[in-house]
Design a protein that fits this description.
The protein has helices spanning 2-25, 39-43, 52-83, 89-110. The chain is mostly helical and 111 residues long.
Length: 111
């Protein structure tokens, strides 16, 4: 009894999805919009107008800058951990490892 209800609900959902799909994908086919066509309207939105290589290069530069900043923050945090170890060898070793990894991350971002 329960499996028949699940089958009916599944069939209903599938039917609705099949009926609504043309409405969702036909948005590009309508011709009565005020957007028009062409590259000038796409550039008016505020997207970058350069080559794809320039866009990728600037995106990677931003990502490397963000990761470099995070590496510097990790270096500072590991320094604070090392200073607050106060003779605790396990915490000092953990701080040394964190400092080593943050230096490696900073070098990888600056290379």
């Amino acid at each position: 009894m329960l499996s028949k209800k699940i089958q009916a609900i599944s069939a209903s959902l599938l039917g609705h999805a099949l009926l609504l799909t043309p409405l969702l994908v036909s948005a590009q086919a309508s011709s009565g919009t005020s957007w028009g066509t062409g590259l000038s309207n796409a550039q008016a939105v505020g997207l970058p107008g350069g080559h794809i290589y320039q866009i990728i290069a600037s995106t990677l530069a931003w990502l490397l800058a963000i990761f470099g900043f995070i590496a510097v923050i990790g270096f500072v945090i590991s320094g604070v951990l090392y200073l607050t170890a106060a003779g605790n060898e396990s915490q000092a070793e953990q701080a040394k490892n964190a400092m080593k990894y943050s230096i490696i991350a900073f070098l990888a971002c600056s290379a």
